[in-house]
Amino acid sequence: MSVLIGGGTGFVGRHLSKMLREKGHRVIVVSRTAGKEKLTWDDVKKNGLPSGCTAVVNLAGRLILEPFKRLDEKYLKELHDSRIDTSKLLVSAITSANVPPKVFVTISGVGYYPPSPTATYTEDGVNGSDWLAKLAKEWEAAGVLPEHVTTRRVIVRSGVVLGADGGMIKTLLPVPAAVYLPMLQLGSGKQWFPWIHVKDIAGIITHAIEKEHMKGVLNGVAPHAINNKDFTEAFNKAFKKMSYGPMFVPAFTLNMVYGSEMAKIVLEGQKVVPERTLEAGYEYFYPSINDSMKEISAKF
Ligand SMILES: NC(=O)c1ccc[n+]([C@@H]2O[C@H](COP(=O)([O-])OP(=O)(O)OC[C@H]3O[C@@H](n4cnc5c(N)ncnc54)[C@H](OP(=O)(O)O)[C@@H]3O)[C@@H](O)[C@H]2O)c1
């Protein structure tokens, strides 16, 4: 396959590119900047898909959870445009291709579902009503292909992606010395923490590309649902930190750092299960949080 990956320079994109190349596929990345084996979004807008392109993936999107970043209009627009405009551009390129690619995979997030302490969401779960849920809905809708286009469409709704070289862990451990600090539970710690190892989010996208029967939504989460307290314990155990059992980061601190709308992302959570992902025959590299954190901590 010849796979075009929008936003392929990022954390998930680098792991996906590596996995695809190891399996013998060709990868071309679409980025805001030009470079080797890279196209810019302008190149795609002007010239369409590169010839021979058989799969398209969109991972582009401005980082959502940033400390001390307020959800003002400018930031919301960036979060929106980096996802929706890139998806629409790829839809347009796929629609006008002489030979349409076999498959179009887009990523979105489990923020699609409303946070709840009691509900369990399969891929058929309801859409929430907060800004994150609305963004996810619009993001997914932006990737809809016209009916006459034969390309398969797969949406992967990702949980928090865990890996040593990007995403949440890199934000938590920005400098090597941070490895020595213990992780504290956030708020009550009872909120669900939908997570996935980076090798598995790359694996699910690869599975979606390669398996011709796959279409529709796949939850990109690990099969073992955990809460924030479970994650904190697994993290501290893997990094061999002392247990700070009763200590936690209070909600008001997180509200101060992230603003109340953003802090909700870590203070509330969804129990998400990968029902269709498992039915589709995907086999996880890291189904358990302890194995996942062990692999990650070994890299520090
Ligand atoms: N990591 C997670 O925990 C997680 C969870 C759920 C969903 N997701 C989604 O999965 C996708 C990939 O995540 P990731 O962790 O790999 O993110 P990442 O490391 O931040 O990479 C995303 C890529 O998007 C491109 N990008 C950033 N800002 C952009 C903008 N304003 N306009 C156009 N492109 C822009 C960048 O590519 P260039 O600089 O080359 O243009 C960047 O490499 C994102 O859409 C993210 O929202 C991630």
From TrEMBL:
Domain NAD-dependent epimerase/dehydratase: 3-211
Taxonomy, superkingdom: Eukaryota
InterPro entries, per the entry: DUF1731, Epimerase_deHydtase, NAD(P)-bd_dom_sf, SDR39U1
SUPFAM superfamilies: NAD(P)-binding Rossmann-fold domains
Domain DUF1731 residues, every copy: 249-295
NCBIfam families associated with the record: yfcH
Name of this chain's protein: Epimerase family protein SDR39U1
Organism listed in the record: Dreissena polymorpha (Zebra mussel)
Upper classification of the organism: Eukaryota, Metazoa, Spiralia, Lophotrochozoa, Mollusca
